[in-house]
Amino acid sequence: MTRLNKLLLVPYILWLGIFIIIPILLLIYFSLTDSAGHWSLSNYHQILSWQYVKMFSTSMIYAFIITFITLLVSYPAAYYVAQSRHQQMLLLILIVPTWINLLLKTYAFIGIFSHDGIINRLLQAVHLPELNILFTGPAFVVVAVYIYIPFMILPIFNSLRDIPHQLIQAASDLGATPWTTFRKVIFPLSLKGVMTGVQVTFIPALSLFMITRLIAGNKVINIGTAIEEQFLVIQNYGLGSAIALVLVIFMVLVLIVTQVTQREGRG
To answer: Where is the chain membrane-spanning (predicted)?
Structure first.
């Protein structure tokens, strides 16, 4: 049985090696070479320039804003679903949008935000001035929040659903107000779901590039668009690999921080 269990690991190990370990090793190699193929740290020196420091800062600010707004919208929604008698139907409504192709949803928002889109037509109907929504930072944030809301709601819902009702009833019997019950019982016990939702939102939000290109145009330049530009446009594989490695390291740090926060919350 032990030998069979080891054999069952072989496909996963092959997959891990071919699609994760080998690409990361290639990134490390290219990041440490210059355009002539010689060993060099010039790519990392370039990352330390003000242009790239500003880009990394902008990416983190947008990722934080997207994550914060997503959490602000998702937590009340998850709480309502967890308390509802129609959980299955509400969960289905939340999950169905994730089945739609991301590119289709992005183009749908282009139609909504464009000069001749639904919003500007409604403004024209009530004789209000038109708005330039498309190709702006706020439009990018709105679309990103819409995309990540289901991924934030689901882990929070699972954590809220697992809270024993007896604990909430006991807090009420001991004289705790609804706000105190939420602050002292419900939120701490749902912190694991919150941290999971933050992970699956903040980390991908750092490297968005398709939505950034289509919705924000050139108004928002983040890590994802920089990597895309270096690999596909400029074809500077060394600098692109260095930026990608820095992003991977930062993602690992975010995972570590959220894991530590989860342990402290359980403590």
So the answer is: 12-32, 60-82, 89-113, 133-157, 193-216, 236-257
Question: CB of 141 within 8 A of CB of 109?
Answer: no
Tokens of 214: 């289509």
Query: Own/partner pairs for 179-183, CB < 8 Å, 24+ apart?
Result: none
DSSP 126-174: TT------SSSHHHHHHHHHHHHHHHHHHHHHHHHHTS-HHHHHHHHHT
Percentage of the chain with pLDDT > 70?
97
Q: Would you place residue 1 in the very low, low, confident or very high pLDDT band (cuts 50, 70, 90)?
A: low
CA 100/CA 120 separation, integer angstroms: 25
3-state secondary structure of 39: strand
Q: Which of 73, 75, 70 is nearest to 191 (CA)?
A: 75
pTM exceeds 0.70, yes or no: yes
